[in-house]
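Morning!

As promised:
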Amino acid sequence: MTKRNEPEKKSGLTVLSPEDVFRFNCHQGLDCFTRCCRDITIFLTPYDTLRMKNALHISSGDFLTEYTVTMIGDTGLPVVVLKMREDDEKSCPFLTSSGCTLYPDRPWACRIYPLQPESTKLTEKAGKTYYSVMDVPFCRGLLSDSVLSLSDWIEEQGIPVYLEMEALFKKITANERLTKEKITNKKIQEMYYMACYDLDRFRRFVLESTFLERFDIEPEAVEQIKTDDVALYLFAIQWLEYGLLAQHVLKVKPNVMAAKKQELGIE
Ligand code: SF4
Ligand code: SF4
């Protein structure tokens, strides 16, 4: 690692500040070209699935069936992993000899490489994200003489929008209410999976069920989520905040509320 700005050592961790530089240059001429796209585990974020299914012009349901495997994480919430091909090399389904066919919409994990976010109590307290450079023995790009700053890399790779979307998602996944106890309720797992990953199904749920009869949603917002996937994603996060975290971010229609109170015998 170059010493133009000496990375700081915090709590036993070598971390890069935005001004720090690191060596890296990945290109087709290297003999390791595409090796990093084989036999790897790539966890997909909800925003990854949104971008990838749109780039492929298929529905979220078809994308999830064809290209992903779903597992249950430590918290009991579903996590989605990119399904590698069943060939000897377990290569990524989007890999060709000339590289990634989904490059402009590649997942966050592929964009951020060779960096990895580091989170410690210290970094969390500072309210900053720090990164370290991964140690991947076969990656020739790490031996390059080219140096680039962390902040330039983050911009060049189109990472800011991913960070923005991920921060919203973390409001759900990092919430104590969900992390205190492992979630085993299948209905909750299914609701979370639909809202986070299966956006087209979530859209049908909002527009075609009794949802809009029960919730007071601005007509402009309804129009927007009919066609805008990012608006739909933001709405899905709100719905999870309401449904899973009991936050009053959605308004129930007064007549529905009155009927519910009557049913429960509340004045
Ligand atoms: S240089 Fe590293 S990132 Fe680029 S293809 Fe080779 S292994 Fe992959
Ligand atoms: S999505 Fe693209 S960059 Fe990421 S592993 Fe697959 S081929 Fe490689």
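The longest helix spans residues 159-173.

Hope this helps with the figure draft.
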